[in-house]
Write a sequence for this structure.
């Protein structure tokens, strides 16, 4: 396959970026998208040019590092996969592929296609945990949890924090991410003691980071590589309003 | 800032205001529609004019109407505030973004649809609400036979500052009931004789349809309604009642007068 790549190049957060066109020839359809970029980078390095910077780590769709906006969609044209799981057979010979970084005020560009997603870490630090004193390991069956509830919590917990929801949202809203992190604990008994404090703290941090509001377009759900449902958003909203308007201050 | 104020200045709180005012406006639409069905009655507007009088002079409804006006304003102002925040959340946009592949068109264009509706509300209230309250409208005099309520003779009276907005006298000797009311029906009838005015209404009702197809169910999502048993019902009402039935029934009114 011979492809034309239009790649966003930006030296650092303070400089203005621009699109640079590269020719990627003799690309195998069996390559993953990131392997294709590796080959392009190898050529660039040989020529003495600065290689294209992009985030990646596990390359098997579980770490949430890769973050490319490909032809107008986060993680490319396929559903339910990350960029590293996208293969070149999803494209046609002689295609032009536009590759951009996630665009959000809260995700500043570090370099080229790599963005700083530490806003997500700060939201998690604000409340995305349960406080447990160390001690003996509790009996695994001590707390009964219905299978459907456990499954629902697990589905929320599959969020890998890649930020595709923010990238896809027309408002750069982080509601899907935050609601998944709120839900995975709110659904389980272990998450109850801090349930209402957690949701308030995490939403406050989300607002402070400068993410947009939710318009309920459902774009996040459609683009999420883990196909996390916007039901989580409704659940988080309900918990938040319960915490703010009904519950006594903790 | 109090906890209450803090709640409504958070991103979720602002959306809650949008959802609650939006749903309140939805309930108003149903009331407005049922009332306006009087327009289709073949009585030279007697029932409609009586209804207009009732709506503007019955105290509980007057109170609710002020709640309604403030809801429209709050809904619009909050939409502007939220949109401004959303713009700030993505200062540099994408060169390529294919929203149609991951979200419905209506959901991405609520602002444009809402703006059309706001312009429509201003025009609509200016032409009917404002005129009914402030303009020197002619009066309609209905002489209704007590023996046969369908036998109505109508005549026009010129504007008279001394006349009440609505008055009723029953003449038992002549077996008639005389109703004199400000003739809003005539204004409605005259307005919808102009083709472009009818088109403006049709465009606005299309915008209403698209706005509510997304807006109604979106409000439930924002409030935190995730009950999977009732969600299909919410979706059904959003699409078929507020997206189809209500706008179509409203659109039928200008068309009825234009082709009558």
């Amino acid at each position: 396959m011979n492809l034309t790549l239009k790649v966003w190049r930006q030296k650092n957060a303070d400089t203005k970026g621009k699109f640079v066109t590269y020719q990627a020839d003799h690309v195998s359809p069996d390559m993953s998208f990131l392997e294709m970029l590796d080959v392009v980078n190898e050529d660039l390095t040989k020529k003495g040019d600065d290689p294209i910077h992009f985030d990646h780590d596990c390359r098997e769709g579980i770490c949430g590092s890769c973050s490319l906006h490909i032809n107008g969609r986060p993680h490319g044209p396929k559903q339910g996969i990350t960029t590293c799981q996208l293969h070149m057979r999803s494209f046609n010979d002689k295609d032009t592929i536009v590759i951009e970084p996630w665009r959000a005020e809260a995700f500043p560009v570090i370099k080229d296609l790599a963005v700083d997603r530490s806003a997500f870490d700060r939201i998690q630090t604000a409340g995305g945990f349960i406080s447990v004193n160390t001690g003996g390991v509790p009996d695994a069956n001590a707390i009964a949890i219905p299978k459907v509830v456990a499954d629902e919590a697990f589905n929320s917990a599959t969020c890998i924090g890649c930020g595709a929801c923010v990238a896809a949202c027309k408002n750069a809203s982080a509601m899907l991410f935050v609601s998944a992190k709120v839900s995975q604990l709110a659904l389980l008994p272990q998450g109850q003691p801090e349930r209402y404090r957690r949701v308030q703290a995490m939403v406050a941090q989300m607002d402070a980071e400068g993410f947009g509001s939710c318009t309920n377009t459902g774009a996040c759900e459609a683009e999420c590589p883990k196909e996390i449902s916007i039901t989580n958003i409704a659940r988080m909203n309900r918990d938040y309003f319960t915490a703010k308007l009904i519950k006594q201050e903790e | 800032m109090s906890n209450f104020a803090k709640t409504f200045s958070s991103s979720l709180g602002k959306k809650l205001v949008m959802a609650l005012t939006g749903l309140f406006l939805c309930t108003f639409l149903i009331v407005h529609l049922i009332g306006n069905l009087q327009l289709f009655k073949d009585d030279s507007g007697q029932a409609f004019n009586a209804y207009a009088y009732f709506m503007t002079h019955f105290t509980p409804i007057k109170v609710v109407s002020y709640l309604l006006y403030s809801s429209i304003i709050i809904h619009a102002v909050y939409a502007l505030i939220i949109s401004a925040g959303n713009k700030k959340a993505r200062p540099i946009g994408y060169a390529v973004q294919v929203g149609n592949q991951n979200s419905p068109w209506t959901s991405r264009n609520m602002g444009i649809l809402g703006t059309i509706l706001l312009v429509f509300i201003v025009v609509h209230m200016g032409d009917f609400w404002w005129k009914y309250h402030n303009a020197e409208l002619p009066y309609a005099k209905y002489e209704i036979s007590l023996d046969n309520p369908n036998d109505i003779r109508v005549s026009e009276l010129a504007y008279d500052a001394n006349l009440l907005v609505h008055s009723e006298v029953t003449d038992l000797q002549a077996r008639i009931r005389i109703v004199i009311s400000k003739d809003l029906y005539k204004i409605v009838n005259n307005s919808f004789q102009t083709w472009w005015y009818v088109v403006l209404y049709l465009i606005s009702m299309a915008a209403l349809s698209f706005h509510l197809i997304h807006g109604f169910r979106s409000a439930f999502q924002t409030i935190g309604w995730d009950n999977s048993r009732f969600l299909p019902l919410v979706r059904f009402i959003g699409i078929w009642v507020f997206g189809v039935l209500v706008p179509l029934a409203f659109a039928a009114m200008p068309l009825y007068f234009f082709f009558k």
Chain B has a mean pLDDT of 93. The beta strands of chain B are 139-145, 152-157, 166-171, 176-182.
